[in-house]
Amino acid sequence: MKHILFRATVFTVVLLCLGGSVLAQGPVKVDWKGGFHTHDKNRDGKIDRGEFQEWMVDSFFQRDTHHKGYLVFGDVKDVMSAEKFKSYDKNGEGKLRLQEFLNAAFQDFERMDVNKDGMLGIEEIENYITLSRRVMSWGIVGPGKSSVVAKQVADRCIVQHQ
Questions:
Q1: From residue 119, how far is each of 49, 62, 76, 110, 135 by CA, in Å?
Q2: 23: burial class by Cβ within 10 Å (0-12, 13-18, 19+)?
Q3: If we measure between CA atoms, which residue out of 115, 140, 121, 98 comes closest to residue 44?
């Protein structure tokens, strides 16, 4: 049985990356299935790395409501803790540039791709989101929460899910 790495960022990155339309003054509307179907260009029911990258680039620019070319914590505070934002901000400038955003997204791609075929099916994403929400509901992940405990709990859950 393979052990899949899982961090407390699962839920936040999934919401951030797989979210649908963004309202400038409201919360993110999560319509990841709509995004999945929109970006499944060859209609094979799977999202390959190229389709995923296009999806994530679109998601980045949907979040960048002021067209700055980067995301600040205020752009993602509804789905990401300050701690996680800082961990993604590799150069420490308080901004997530597109490349930093994509690096984080592709880390999650690898975690979601349970069968390691280089593509994501709806079931893989759905299972990932379900597990992430379960961990979030336990109150150990979120703004101001430590990711260490969440990672340990989530690691155990993923191993049990396989």
A1: 7, 23, 26, 9, 24
A2: exposed
A3: 121
Decide: 59 and 72 in contact? Cβ < 8 Å.
no
Q: Please report the sign of the dihedral spanned by the C-alpha atoms of residue 146, residue 4, residue 100, residue 124.
A: negative
Rounded Cα gap, residues 122 and 81, in angstroms: 26
pLDDT 10s per residue in the chain (162 long)?
Answer: 333 333 333 434 444 444 433 323 334 445 789 999 999 999 999 999 999 999 999 999 999 999 999 999 998 887 677 888 898 898 999 999 999 999 988 988 998 999 999 999 999 999 988 887 777 677 655 544 445 544 554 555 444 444
Q: Which residues contact 52 (CB under 8 A, 6 or more apart)?
A: 39, 105, 106, 109, 120
Q: Identify residue 157 by its one-letter amino acid code.
A: C
**105 with 52: CB under 8 angstroms?**
yes
Q: How many residues does the chain have?
A: 162
